[in-house]
Amino acid sequence: MNNKKNEVNKLKSIRKYYKPIQPTVSVDDNEICYHEIQPKKEIEDFIYCFWQLKTKKSLENDYNYRVVSDGCIDIFFDHKKPIENFVMGFCRKFVQFPIGKEFNYIGIRFLPSAFTHLFGVDAKSISNQSQELNSILPDFSKWITSEIRPEESFENITKILNEKLLGLSQKQSIAYDHRFLDALNLIFKCHGFLDTEKDLTIGLSPRQLRRIFNFYIGTTPKSFSNVVRFQHILNTKPSKQSLKENKLYFDVGFFDQAHFIKSFKTFYGVTPSEAFR
User: Exposure string (b/e) for 206-232, b if CB count within 10 Å is 16 or more?
Assistant: First the structure.
């Protein structure tokens, strides 16, 4: 019993050390609204937030939505047509796709490893892609279709999702691997800046560690650490001027500015100076 309590506490620390953000839509945008609502405390170890992305008015052109790498798995659906529901796995680089002139999407952002802990799905099987939820979690897909009403507000829908996910978390007999959680917590505490081959000394060989990370996260420890490091940079919110003066790229393990910019662009889609303009 005490061992399981310790592993639950390790899972809790994910939220303490990691705040995955999606910064590509400005809160000051006059045409598009992006909003997040925090989950109930009982499920905050699994869910980072519920989110909504919608147009305030019809746009002149199709909107290209850019999703930056955040290490998470998301379930999302069309508010007006909940039957259209999907899951997006871990993405090792930014993803951009057109979503039309009018849209209203609602999503659930699962903290790293939480999706697999709750549903038992091999995260690697959905990495770097978006799939129809029905092909991965048919029962949950049918529940969204039957229980989510287009006329309900985002706030009310989050209450419904909270109760559903709380019920799932209480019913599931969740198996925790302390070695994986130890490695995960070390990556977060180091903000992804570590040598995964040498520093993750948790009683697993590099091959075993890669296998277990692929299952729970959807990628290797090294690839995931790179995303954590990228998210740490986003959370520091550097200005364009400080990027030049403070040599941030040295602080996060890059030897020169060129490699820092190349890595950042892989995860964000634009250079740091463009992102923090």
Answer: eeebbebbbbbbbbbbbbbbbbbbbbb
Q: What does the H/E/C string look like for 153-196?
A: CHHHHHHHHHHHHHHHHHHCCCCCCHHHHHHHHHHHHCCCCCCH
Evaluate if pTM is beyond 0.90: yes
What string of pLDDT tens digits covers the 277 residues of the chain? 545 566 666 677 788 889 999 988 765 578 899 999 999 999 999 999 999 999 999 999 999 999 999 999 999 999 999 999 999 999 999 999 899 999 999 999 999 999 999 999 999 999 999 999 999 999 999 999 999 999 999 999 999 999 999 999 988 777 788 889 989 999 999 999 888 888 887 778 889 999 999 999 999 999 999 999 999 989 987 766 666 666 666 666 777 788 888 999 999 999 988 888 7
**What are the backbone angles phi and psi of residue 89, rounded to the nearest 5°?**
-85, -175
Taking a C-beta distance cutoff of 8 angstroms, is the pair 176, 185 a contact?
no
